[in-house]
Structures are given as structure tokens and as C-alpha cells.
Amino acid sequence: MNETLAKLELKNGEKYFQTLKGHTTDALKILRAYVQRNSDVISQFCERWDINKEKFLKNLFLAVYLHDIGKLTKEFQENIRHNRRSQKYPHAYYGFFLLHESFTETVIDIPMELAAILGHHSQLYDQLYSDHNQFEKPSFLEKEIMEFVDNAVNVYEELRFNEFFGFDGFTGTIPEFRWKKINGVRNKFIRKIKVYLDENGNWERTKSIFSYFFAILQTCDDYASAHFSRFVESYGGEERLFDGVLENPDEYVPVLRIDNLTKTVLGDKDPYEFQKDLLDAPKFVTLFAPCGRGKTEAALLWALNTLKKHGRNKIVFAMPTQATSNAMYDRLKAIFGEENVGLYHGRSFIKLRDDSKKEEEGFEDEKDVDEIRSETFKGNVFFKPITITTVDHVIYSFVKGFSQADFALGNLQNAVIIFDEVHYYEKLTLEHLLTLFKRLIKMDIPHLLMSGTLPDFMLKELDNCYEHITDKEGLEFRPFKLEFHEKSVFDDEVINEIVRGYKKGLSQFAILNTVERAKQLYLRLKEELKDEANIMLYHSQFTYSDRVKKENEIYSRIKNKPFILVATQVIEVSLDISCDVMYSELAPPDALGQRAGRLNRKGETWSNGIEHALKIYMPEKHFPYEEDLFEKVQSAVGDYQGPMSYKEVKEFCDKVYADYAPEVPSDLLSLFKRCTVFGYNWRDITFDGEEGRRFRVRDDRIQHVDVIPECIYEEEGDSGLKVQNMAKIPLSYLMRDRREGLGRFYPVEVQKGRRTKTYRICRHPYSYEIGFDYGAEIDDMCII
After folding, report:
1. Closest residue by Cα to residue 383 from 251, 257, 233
2. 526 Cβ partners below 8 Å, 6+ apart?
3. What confidence tens digit (pLDDT) does each residue in 585-617 have?
4. DSSP class of 73
5. pLDDT, position 364
6. Which interval of the chain is the signal sequence (predicted)?
7. Whole-angstrom Cα distance, residue 582 to residue 572?
8. Angle, CA 52 vertex, CA 48 and CA 58 arms, to 5°
9. Of 52, 357, 578, 739, whose CB count within 10 A is highest?
10. pTM, full prediction
11. Domains with residue ranges and CATH for the chain
12. Of all residues in the chain, what percent carry a pLDDT higher than 90?
């Protein structure tokens, strides 16, 4: 029994093994640390769902203890000793089969414990392990299996789990193995869960309990494995076979410790009245406050107090964009420390990489890459006490929308979630969000909805469920005035005005509705001001690496007035910066309000030696906004000229959106129910640019694809085929190229293991200064 293996690590050509007993012991040490450090969290969770805490903990112990029992086959043991892949012998599937007759005392009316074991290597979906032709018949090591099962009591006592629950042993059996039988067990198991859900309709309860149980199991298994890998990496002795090696399990159960809540968040500043109100607000609350008034600080006060008051252990910030996520990550790291704050979005690897670079070392060290991948994984599953992510990732976690979605959702069960700028989405996303908020209420997951222009149609949908808190003082401030001009920002008079403002030493922003018009205005102003001018261009079609660099450069260069930033609406909620005067093309009122939030930020009046004006001009087309919405904005904007408060911005929003009627619930609800435990494979749910699948978070009127500039590929070759060198462009550009045979894009295939990865190379000239130069070939049809 002491020689049955669970883990293999290679170093310098040598094999290092960990026994099944050792890996299991390490996993259980993490479980014990989790239970100790989260006792109040587990208690409130069990009370909330009316389940027996002792049974919950006992079955967690058993699931962690038994999760790898399927490795006790002759074939797995031979394969691991010879470093051969064991995919034809899926130990999670065989472990599920070994336990299905024995694991009968379940926490709820369905055996979610078996479901967690079955899915601990591949997220559950209906067809998981359905084709037995892919697998080989296992030879169960019956003697070792029974010894391992019988030893559960000894481990229970050695690790002092008797402090938490009673346990006098587990009775195991070894069923006769036949393909027909194991397939029948699998199919019957899935049907049982489906019938239970159809008859009881307890989707939220079932998904909450299953995902939380599963997340704890995954945490124990994944980090016990990760620790053995780290142990081998630093080990310099002669031994090659190890039992347990984990000495400090607390490092895998992070807990946020705050001694003085208000001082940590506000420093020596006195809180505003709305911040005081929010501090003691209930689980479900909205905050209506203007930009620059400390909404983030107010949200943190609420979140930290809610953790303590309602027995929760994580804070998740759900942001509108990747750029806003990056900015919030930097901000919260400075307050709580890097060890407590995680980041995840589709390109967070790049941000984490750039933050970890050392100028003298570069970024070629393999160890650094592995550490960052680990950080990315932690963000993906909301592992740290605080995680910054996008709203897309939160939504996808509820519908198995990525490979670790059930793990992430389990960690969300005891989180508090802050949704920043909840109005900042097009119609489809708003409908999903309103549906999601109703699920969060049913799951009793505390959340805060923040907005600077919270429109009435959202408040009506949320009524009776939330307490509404308003920054009454801040909403009365008039930090800017609004001017509307029936001409283009490209008019010579406007260009001359911007140039004069530059010569006066002002900081000016010009926000265009499309990428191409932003490029055109940037080049026009640069020509007028000459090359030495302090002017920058920022939009969404730079490579991911260049976008991070540009964000940092903007923060640096804006300190040296005069400064001009020409951008698209990508900066509306992304950068914590302020200008003296803003020039903007006409846009929906909530977008205009967001843009105004970068004008005289934190100011109280618009006249302070400088005429802080939001000057609005007509674009060439309504695109990228819907034509009827654009017409309503154009009709209403004339009523809101002159000195303006955020209260009036909200009135502007309500007037334009008076007839807006979101469809609630959206198709998110049906997919949520379908994917409660089993359901679709995550690869069938997500949306990857060209191929829309079962579910989309955002409107795909403009689908995007990733491309790599040819100049980078020519310079770096295959080593340049990296995520950080990709830029998003509209799919329509690629489709037009194929249709008309322009030859501006071509594929490059690279073999990665047994898979072939295809990259798209874009021949259009590219530079850090302006992005792609499409010449006259591209219509002005790209939004941000």
C-alpha cells in the first residue's frame, strides 16, 4: 500500500514519485486548514441551505480521501512508473464506479459527492466518459483498494478531524466491472439528477451546494499536487519516493485580515455621508454616485463589513472591460497587498507578466512564466480573498462557460460581488445581468450594483429587492458644462480651438465613436501641432501588450501639461485620469456621462479659472449605436446644455431610455438550469470570435478576431506567436479580405504537442503609435 503511486514529477531526467497515501494526506491537510479558517463561513452556508454541517464536513473528508481511488489499478500504476500517459484509464471515472454502490449517505437527495469525484479532472457534462471505446478495461487492485478504504479511520484520527465530526469508517465494495454495467451506472446517475431537478426545481440550491462542495475538493486536490511539484523543484536529496510533504497548508487557504476597516480603505479621510450609509447597508444594495466621489472606497467599506457580518470570505469586483479590471487591480494591490488580490480576464496573463518584469532580467525565465500561470489560474477560479475580473467571466461561471467554471462558481458561493458601472453595457448584456442578479438573490450571494448614471428602467427591474443609496451631495455638483454643436469635430474651427487650448497649457481629451475617426483626428492634430507635441492615441486595436504600455504611458504623460489624448470610448470607464476640456462625438447619455467623468474629475463646479466643458459634435454616422437610440439622443441633447450635474445626466438617461424594456429573464436562465450539475461541454457554450456557440454575453453585431501584425512575425518568427502580440480586429475585415481576395491576412500553423495551433497574420502596416494602417481599404465600421 505504501508503494501505490499518485503523482510523478520529472527534474533533470530523474523521476520523483508521491504515494497515493502521501498525496491524499496533503490534500486532507489543506481541507483541515480550510475548515479551521472558514468555520463561520461553512456554518452560515449550511444554515442558509438547511443542510447538516457535520454530514457536509464528513462527506467532504470522504470525497477528498477517496477522490483518487481510481488510481488503484494495475494499469495506472504501471503507466505512472514508466511515465506513460494514462488517458485510456480515466481514474476519476473508475473511482466513481468503485464508489457508486458505497457512497449512499449523501448531504442532499442526489449524490453530489460522487458527481464531484467524477468531475474532478474534467468538468461535468452530459457526454463525459460516454464513449467506452476510448478506454481500456481496468484491473482493479482489490487488496490495495480495501486497505486504502479501511485506513480512512486512521487518517481521520491522525489529522484530528474528530474535532469537527464523528466518523467510524467507510464500507467499500468492489463492483464487478463490465462496460455495459459502468455505462448503465453513468447514464442512470445523470438521469437521476435530471429527474430530481425537473421534479423539485431546486436549481439554485442544488448548484450552490454542488459547486461549493466541488470547489473545496478541487482546492485540496489541485494545491496538494502543486505543492508536490514545488517541493520537487527545490529538493536536493537522494530520495525519489515520498509520502506527504506539505507542512504549511494555511498558505493554500488565504484569509483577508483587516484590523481597522475604515483606516485601511480611507486612510485619514472622513467618510462622506453616502459612504457611511453604505457601510451598514444590507446584502443587496445599489449605489448611485458620480465619478470621482469615492464609489470604490464606499464599495470596499460595504464589502468588508458584509464579509464579517454575513460570514463570507471573498470579494469579487466585476468590471465592464479588461482595461477597467487592470486599473482596479493596480488600485487594490496598493491597498491590500499583491498576495491578497487576484486578476482574471481573457488577457490578464499579459498584465501579470508586465507587472512582474524586472528590467535587468527580462522575461525569459521559465520559472517566472509558471508562477504567472499560477496567478492567472487563481484569478480564474476566484481563489484569493479579492479578485478583479470582468462581468463576462462572472456570468460564464454560472453556465459552465469555461473549463473551471464549476470551481469558480463554488468560490463565488461565499463571496460578495461588486458590479461596477452596471449601466455600461448594450442591451443583450444588460438582460443577462438582470437575470443574473435574480439568481444571486435566490442564492443569497450579497452584491452591490454601482453606477454614476443608474437609469430608471434598471431600478424598476430591481425594485423591492435592493436598498438604494445615493450620494445626494455629489449629484448636485456641477463639475462641467455641456455644449452641443451641429458640426463635426473635424471642422477647422474646432481643430483650431483644440490647438489654442494646447498652447494655453490645457489637458484635453477628444473621444471619437470609431477607431478610424480617432486615427484621423490624431494625425490631423499631430500635423497641426508638429511632432514634438505631447499627444497620444488610444483605442482597442493595439496589441494587448501595447495597450498595457499605452495605459502606463498615458498616466505618465498626462502629468506634463499641455497634453492631448485622442481615443475611442475604450477610455470611458478604463482610466482614472482627468482633463480640463473634452471634445466628444454624440453618443448615448450614459456614455456621455461616463466620458464626462474624465472631465474635471473630483471637481464641484465647472468654472475654476478654466471652462470645463464637454463639447459634443455630430459624427459622420450613427454607428456603432443603434439608429433609433441615436435619434433619441440627438433630439434630447438640446435640453441639457449649460452647467450640468450628474443628477441631470441621469434625467437625460431616463428621458432617452423611457421606452426601453429589457427581456428578463434572458436565455441565461434556461442555460443555467440546463447546466446545474451536468449539461453542455464548456467548449459548446463559449463564443470565440468567428464561431458563435450556444451563449453570448455581448451583442455580436461586431464580432472580432485576434491577429498578429506581420511586422512582429517577420521580426520574431514563431517566437512572436504569443497572446501579447495579438490585436483584435472586426471579423468583417477578415471576411471581406477572403471575399475579395485582397491577401491582407494569411494563416500560420504551429504544432504544439499533438495539436495544431493556427494564427492569423495581418499584412496591414502596424505601429505602436497608431495601430494598423488600413489605408483606404477599410470602411469606418469599428467601434472601440
Report:
1. 251
2. 533, 535
3. 999 888 888 888 888 877 777 766 678 899 999
4. B
5. 32
6. none
7. 12
8. 125
9. 578
10. 0.90
11. 5-249 (1.10.3210.30), 261-469 (3.40.50.300), 478-644 (3.40.50.300), 702-772 (no CATH)
12. 63
